[in-house]
């Protein structure tokens, strides 16, 4: 993974992850900066600026996480941690006053995805497939989310098992086959992405490549056998809200 031209955020992120690793604490980047760690190919002109450091960790290592941040000059945001500490923590750089958010165990946004068994698949970030899912699970995609999805698709191949730079469509299909709400949001967004790509000024070969990758994900989801609970929930359709409301500001991952 190359991570040039990002300056201080990259170096700070690396320092946190490496210090944690030395202490046998698992911390992995999530969000836009994690996308930048993975995407550095010929399409890097589509990358946006990434400034925030968001991390994912395990609640069972809570004490170790506090120790890591104390070691590198961060103070816990006690008020924030009192309010949200069950699911996420925040630490503040004593010099720059910039904050770092650490999410624990489960990704809880528009939909909930359990990352506890996924964090050892990559040494610096959550797996690239999970990074894609954190974008596709958003019910109201912004332009920056769209560009992150395009960036991930451009620089990664499609596969059916986990690999450091492979998009595991079998994993995506498995999650979507057991959660009707996630299935709806992901498939809706894949359809929107196809429409968006067609409108953007890509070369014909780029459009074809992106479209084929999206179709591969769609097909994997379509043919995956759906769980009984999925079918029961599906019978209710859109009459019941299928996603969680995320408050603007607090808790958002950029």
Question: What features would you highlight for this structure?
Answer:
254 residues; 10 helices; 9 strands; five-stranded mixed sheet; alpha/beta
> What percentage of amino acids are in beta strands?
5-15%
Strands of the biggest beta sheet: in what spatial order?
1-2-5-4-3
Mean pLDDT: 91
Count of discrete alpha- or pi-helical segments spanning 4 or more residues: 10
Overall, the morphology is globular
Structural description of this entry:
This protein has 254 residues and is of the alpha/beta class. The protein has one domain (8-239). It is built from 10 helices and 9 strands. It has helices spanning 8-22, 32-38, 62-71, 78-84, 128-136, 143-155, 169-178, 180-199, 204-223, 228-234, and strands at residues 28-30, 53-57, 74-76, 88-93, 99-104, 106-108, 112-114, 157-159, 166-168. It has a 5-stranded mixed sheet with strand order 1-2-5-4-3. A two-stranded antiparallel ribbon has the order 6-7. A two-stranded parallel ribbon has the order 8-9. Strand 6 (106-108) and strand 7 (112-114) form a beta hairpin. Helix 7 packs across helix 9. It is globular and about 50 Å long. Residues 1-6 have low confidence and may be disordered.
């Amino acid at each position: 993974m190359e991570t040039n031209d990002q300056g201080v955020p990259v170096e700070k992120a690396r320092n946190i992850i490496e210090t944690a690793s030395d202490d046998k604490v698992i911390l992995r980047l999530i969000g836009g900066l994690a996308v930048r760690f993975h995407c550095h190919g010929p399409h890097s002109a589509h990358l946006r600026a990434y400034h925030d450091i968001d991390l994912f960790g395990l609640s069972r290592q809570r004490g170790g996480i506090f120790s890591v941040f104390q070691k590198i000059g961060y103070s816990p945001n006690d008020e924030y941690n009192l309010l949200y500490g069950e699911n996420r923590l925040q630490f503040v750089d004593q010099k720059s006053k910039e904050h770092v958010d650490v999410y624990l165990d489960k990704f809880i946004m528009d939909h909930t995805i359990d990352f506890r068994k996924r964090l050892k698949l990559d040494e610096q970030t959550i797996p690239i497939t999970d990074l894609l899912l954190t974008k596709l699970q958003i019910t109201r995609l912004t332009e920056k989310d769209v560009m992150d999805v395009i960036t991930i698709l451009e620089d990664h191949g499609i596969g059916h098992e986990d690999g450091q730079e492979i998009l595991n469509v079998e994993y995506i299909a498995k999650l979507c086959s057991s959660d009707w709400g996630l299935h709806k949001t992901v498939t809706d967004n894949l359809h929107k992405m196809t429409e968006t790509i067609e409108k953007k000024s890509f070369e014909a070969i780029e459009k074809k490549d992106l479209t084929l990758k999206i179709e591969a994900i769609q097909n994997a989801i379509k043919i995956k056998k759906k769980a009984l609970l999925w079918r029961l929930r599906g019978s209710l359709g859109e009459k019941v809200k299928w996603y969680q409301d995320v408050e603007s500001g607090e808790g958002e991952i950029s």
